[in-house]
Amino acid sequence: MILINTILGNIGDPVWAERVSAGKSDWLEIDQWEAQKSRFRKATAKGVEIAVSIDRGTHIRDGDVLLWDATTLSALVARIELRDVMIVHLDGLASFVPEVAMRTCVELGHAMGNQHWPALVKGNLVYVPLTVDRKVMASVMNTHHFDGIRYEFVPGREVVPYLAPHESRRLFGGAEGPVHSHTHENYAGVEAETGRVYGHPPTHVHPHPGAARHGQTSPATAGSAHDYRK
Question: Considering the entire predicted model, what is its pTM?
Answer without folding.
Answer: 0.54
